Amino acid sequence: MSLLSALLAVTTQVATPHLTATRVSTPPVLDGRLDELTWKRAKGSDAFTQKLPTPGEKPRYRTLVRVVYDDEAVYVGIDCEQTDDEIIARLTRRDRQVEADAVTVTLDTRGDGRSALEFEVNAAGVLSDALRFNDTEISREWDEIWDARTTRTTHGWSAEFKIPLRILRFRDLPTQSFGLQVRRRVSMLQEVDEWTFIPRDAGGEVSRYGKLDGLSGLRPKAALELRPFLVGALRYSESEAESRGAGVFPTGSAGLDLKWHPSQSLTLDATIFPDFGQVEADQVILNLSNFERFFPERRPFFLEGADNLATPFKLVYTRRIGRAPGTPAVRDDEETVGSSTPATVYAAAKLSGELAEGVSAFELLGVTAPVLVDVKRGDGSFVSRVAEPLAAFKVLRLRKDFGPRASLGFMATAKSRFETPSVYPTVETASGNGRTRVLCPKEQLVAHGARCFHDAYVAGIDGRWRSPGGDYVISGQVVASLVHDGPPRTLPDGTVISSGDIGPAVQARVAKEGGKHWTFNAEYAGHGRKVDYNDVGYMQRQNLHAFTASVRYRRLDPWWVTLETETFVDAVERDTLDWLTQERMLVLGNYTRWANFWESFVAIHAKPSRFDDREVGDGTALERAPLFGGELWVATDGRRLVNGEAWVMVQGIETGLNVEADGRLSVRILPQLDLDLIPTFLYTRGEPRYVTTIGAGHVFGRLRAQSLGLTMRATYTFTPRLSLQAYAQAFLEAQSFDGFTFSKARGPGKVARLAELLPFGLPLDDDPDWEGGSINANIVLRWEYRLGSTLFLVCTHAQGDGRAPLGRRATGFDFGWLGPRASEETLLAKLSYWWG
Prior knowledge:
Layout: H1 3-8, E1 18-20, E2 22-23, H2 37-41, E3 44-45, E4 49-52, E5 63-69, E6 73-81, E7 102-108, E8 116-122, E9 127-133, E10 137-139, E11 147-153, E12 156-164, E13 175-186, E14 191-194, E15 210-216, E16 224-237, H3 238-244, E17 248-263, E18 266-272, H4 300-303, E19 335-336, E20 345-356, E21 359-368, E22 371-376, E23 382-388, E24 390-401, E25 406-418, E26 426-428, E27 436-439, E28 445-446, E29 455-466, E30 472-484, E31 489-490, E32 496-497, E33 502-512, E34 518-527, E35 544-555, E36 562-575, E37 581-594, E38 599-607, E39 610-612, E40 621-624, E41 627-635, E42 642-653, E43 656-670, E44 673-694, E45 697-719, E46 722-743, E47 751-752, E48 758-759, E49 770-786, E50 789-805, E51 823-832
Parallel strand pairs: 1-15, 2-5, 40-47
Antiparallel strand pairs: 3-5, 4-14, 5-6, 6-12, 7-8, 7-13, 8-9, 9-10, 11-12, 13-14, 13-15, 16-17, 16-51, 17-18, 18-20, 19-22, 20-21, 21-24, 22-23, 24-25, 25-29, 26-27, 27-28, 29-30, 30-33, 31-32, 33-34, 34-35, 35-36, 36-37, 37-38, 38-41, 39-40, 41-42, 42-43, 43-44, 44-45, 45-46, 46-48, 46-49, ...
C-alpha cells in the first residue's frame, strides 16, 4: 500500500449510536432519583461497551442513560446497576480527580466534531468539568456553573445532571443534534464503559461521538452573569517590622467578574481588580539548569480558555500577566527592603466564540500595575523604585476549520510598557566628569529620557490536519517576533537583541497516533538567533535546530500478566544555528500497566559530549561530559486506601554522578479525608560548571549540589460544596564547588573544552558556596454557599526562601533553616456572589 493511501485509509468504523432527547414541560427535581414520570417517559439507551480493561467486551453492569430538556436546561439521568462490587463514593473538593465510581456526559453542542464540553459527577456527588478541543486534546481548567446530584438505589446508584442552556454554545436551528458521549467508571473493577465505543487503537475522540437527536426550539438564557466579590486581608511581615518598624498591613478591596453573551456564538469574560489569594503557592525546587522554570497556571480566570491558545509554540504563557519581576538595580549606597511582589492585575478580558460558521476567534486583554520595591537610602530614608512599569498584554487568535479534521490559525501577541523615565535613579558615569546616566531596573545605563524596557510583538500562523481515519496528524507553525524600543539586551548565548530586530521560528510535525500496535512521531523546531516571544509566551532559548523522532510499539489488549504495554525508542538532536551540538540523546523505554493495576515505567538513555553556550552567559560554550543513565517509575493500585508512586533517575557522568528522586504516598484516612506526602531529592557532584569571570577568562568548578523537600497536601471534604484544604512544603538546598579550573575561551563562538581547562588556585572575590531553606504553607476553607457563590478563608505562611554563605562547613542539609525565622503571615477572606 502506498504512503498516500495509508494516510487516507479509514479505520474500521463503529456504527454511530443515536439517542432521542424528550422535551418536557415540567423539569425533573434535581435529587439524583430517576423515579419521576418525566424520566420514565423518556427514551433510554443501555448500549454501552467496555473500553477498559477488556476493550469491546460487554460491561459487567448495566448502565441506562436518558435525556430530557426544556427551555432552561438539558437534563441527563444515568442509572448505574452495581450489586456485587462495592461502590466507591469519595468526597473531595470540586474539580479534583480522585479514585471513585463516576459518570461523565460530554456534549459537542456545535456539532463540529472538534470541541465538546464534559461534565462529570462521582458517586459522592462531587462535580468536575473539562473542555475538549482539537478533537483529541482536553483541558480540565474550564469551569462553569451547573449542577448534578447522586443517590443510592436498591440495585446500585444513579446520577442526575442539570446542564443550563446558558453555558452551551449551539447553532440557531429549529431542530438540531448534539454530539454525545457518556462514560461510566467502575472503580473496584478499574472498568470504563462507553456509550459511543471508541477503540483504543483508533485516532480521534470528539469526531467519533454518537448523536443526541430531537432537540428543537432551543433558545439561550441569561445574556449577562455578574459575580461581585469583596476581599479583606491582614498581612504581617517580620522582616519589614525589623527594617521599618512596622510590619502589620491591613488591606481591603472589591472587584467584579462578569460574563456577557453579546450573541449566541460569542462570550465576553472580564474581571476587574481580580484577587487570587486562594491560589496555592508554587512548589520550590533547586533549578540547576540555565533555563527559566515553567510554572503551571493556577488562577481560574486565566485557566479558562487555555484551549484557544494551544499551538505548537507556547506563544501565550499567562503567568507573564501579573508576574513578580526581579529586584531592581540600586545605587551603591542603597539597598532593597524585601523583594518584588506579583504585579496587580487591574483588569483582564476575554472574548471568545464563532464569528461565522467554521471561523472562531479569541481575544485576551490584560493591564497590570507598576511593581514598586522599597529601597533604603544611605541616609536611612526610604523610597519606592520601579521594578516593572505599567503594562498591557494583548492576544488575538483566529482559526478557520475545514471540517472536523483540518484547520488554519493565526495568532498575534503584544506587550506594551508605559514608562516614566524620570522615576529611575541616576548614577555618575565611570569617567568621573560629573556626567550622569539613568540606572535601569535591569542594570543597564541609558541616556536621560531613554526607555529602560522594550515593547514586544509576535505573529504567527499554524495549521493542523488529521486523516479521515483519525490515525495520522500533520501540523506546523511559522512565527516572527519584533522588539521595539528599549536598550540592547545580551542573551545567555551571547546574542544581542536591539530595537527593530526581527526573528523567525518554524515548527513541523508528522505523527501516527492511532493504530493497533505501531505509532510514530517526527518533529522539527527551529528558532532564529533573535526570535523572542518570552514577553507574553514561554521559550527556553533561541538560536536552535531541534529534531525529535519516536517509534512506539504498543499492546492495548490484556496479554499475559499485563493490561497494556508500550515500548519506545526516542531520539533527540539539538544544535545551534552554527551546528554546535547542544544535545544528542537516545532513549529506550517501556511503560506497562499490570493485571494487578500497578503501573511501571523504565528507560535508559545516553548522551555523548555536547556544548552548552548558555552556561557562562556571554556565549562561551562549555563542553559537557558524556553521560549514561536510567530511570524507573512505579505506581501502586490507586484503589487502595494506601497507595503511592516513586520515581528515581541515576546518571553516571565521566566526571561525577547525578541522582534525582521523588514520590507520593497517599493515605485515605477517611472517605472524606485525603493525605498526600510528596518527597523530593536531588544530588549532583563532579560536573564542571561556571563560577565567575576573572580577567580575560572564566573560572569553572566541580559542582556539588543537593536539595531535599517534603510537600504535604490534605483535603477534608465536609460536603461536595464545603471543603478544607491544607498545603505545606519544607525545602532545603545547598551547593558548593571544588577543583577549580580556568579557561581563556571567552565570548560568542569560543569553546571551553574539558580537556583544555587549566588548574586554578587563586582566591575568589565572592564565595560561590551557599545553602538555604524555606517553608511555605496555606490553609483554604472553600464554601459554595449557593450555586456559583463562594466564601474563601485563607491563611498563609511564607518563611525563608533565602540563602547564606556555606563558609567552611561541608555541603549538607542544615535543618536549622526550618526552625523559627523571619516569615510573612497572611489572613484573607474573599466573598463572592453569583447572579445570572
